[in-house]
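Exercise: predict the fold of this chain.
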Amino acid sequence: MGSRRTAFKPAAATAKEWNLKSPHRPLARFMCLGLALMLGATVFIASTAEAQQPERRRNLLDMLFGQRQPVYVPPQDVQRPREGKVRKKNSGSVTTIQTRAPSTRAAAAPPPPPKLDTAKKVLVVGDFVASALGDGLKAAFEDSPGVVVESRANGSSGLVRDDFYDWPGALPAIVAEIKPSVLVIQVGANDRQQLVTAEGRLDFRTDPWFTAYGERVARLATVAAETRVPVIWVGLPAFRPQNMTADALRLNTIYRSNIEKVSGEFVDVWEGFVDQEGRFIVTGSDINGQPVRLRGNDGIGFTGPGKRKLAFYVEKSARRYLGDMTSPDLVRLDGSNLPELLSLPPSESKAIITTPPIDLFDPELDGADELLGGTLPPSSSFPTPRDQLVQNGRLPDPPVGRVDYVKRVPATAATTTAPATATP
């Protein structure tokens, strides 16, 4: 067997032959072009990042291409445009926009006037609803220097748990201390519970319970009437729990009947916190008719507008008892602040001639029978149109120039003035 000998080729010649004849030559060129594009994009992104970020660390590309660390440039203090209302003005076909700088904060409301030393007092007693009522009355009479509202409410009190707080026993001492001009009572929101009497425990919503509770209401009303102060008893409002609302309606009838027996006044606030169908509302109209939130999230407490609306029903009755002291511009005149009375000089006062008044309907009552020194003409010389119609049977001629004035020529005059006609 003969042996086959293979000619040896150098490596450079083999690579050159592969580059010229290899079918992978286009793929290699595409890969080189893609690598170059990737490197260019990386450099561009890095340069953009350098422009946006003044301070950063050097990366691999910086080490390879020898880029230097950029110098930190502090940011410029750019003043933002002021926000304001934009107002457009149309002048012909050109529209110009003017930006108005925001106005300064509105001036703070002036403080309420100080209360007078002789101001009348309104005393509010009761439970947590009475506390809200007291806050509303303070806002109502805030601008009245002659009225001071004193709230002595106990949020957890009532007429059932007299062992916790006894209102009939504590009320006389409170009235003697405050010396109010009006007494406002609002109680009962905490009384929906078992009542303990000498005979035993009485369950709520039973006839014995309502009988015993009515006696306690009558006792408090009698004690309030004995203080010789005008008493205003405020009824319970509606609440979110339906059973609580139904109980409030029943309790209001007890309050009304007992306070009216002692000549007190009952104020019903029910309509202010229900809709047209009598259902409880959380949001309703305030004292100005604007929709606001009146009650808290629990449906029992009151918001600020709700307290003010609660006091709105009591304010009218309280002002009636307080009189002129509720006026914000009230000024009491005494010997120290009387205005100066200007009198006329003696020369001018002597020239004044005073005359007694004369009755226009019956001048003879003051001793005279004429007005302004004139003499009335006799009625016979000036017959009225009625007299002429009755006596002569015809009305007087209308004045010349009036629309009903018509000059009629008598028939005899027309016959005599007619032109004569020639006879054949």
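Check your answer against the key: The radius of gyration is 51 Å.
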